[in-house]
Write a sequence for this structure.
């Protein structure tokens, strides 16, 4: 269910560069939600409004985000 919900994420309105940041935002949702379905669904909904807030909440908003993501088990290139 979680993977399906993440796969169905829509591009947020008026935000450029979504394809580049999609994996990062999805990792941010999983990190913040700790894989709890209701929190994942809320994270997805929130990211559709402003995905930058999602990155901030998970600690993936700064330049060191690849290191933080990797420590959480996400190897995003």
């Amino acid at each position: 269910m979680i993977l399906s919900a993440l796969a169905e994420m829509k591009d947020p309105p008026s935000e450029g560069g979504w394809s580049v940041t999609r994996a990062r935002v999805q990792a941010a949702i999983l990190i913040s939600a700790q894989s709890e379905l209701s929190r994942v669904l809320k994270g997805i909904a929130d990211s559709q409004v402003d995905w930058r807030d999602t990155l901030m909440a998970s600690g993936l908003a700064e330049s060191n985000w690849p290191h933080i993501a990797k420590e959480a088990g996400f190897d995003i290139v």
Summary: The chain has a mean pLDDT of 86.
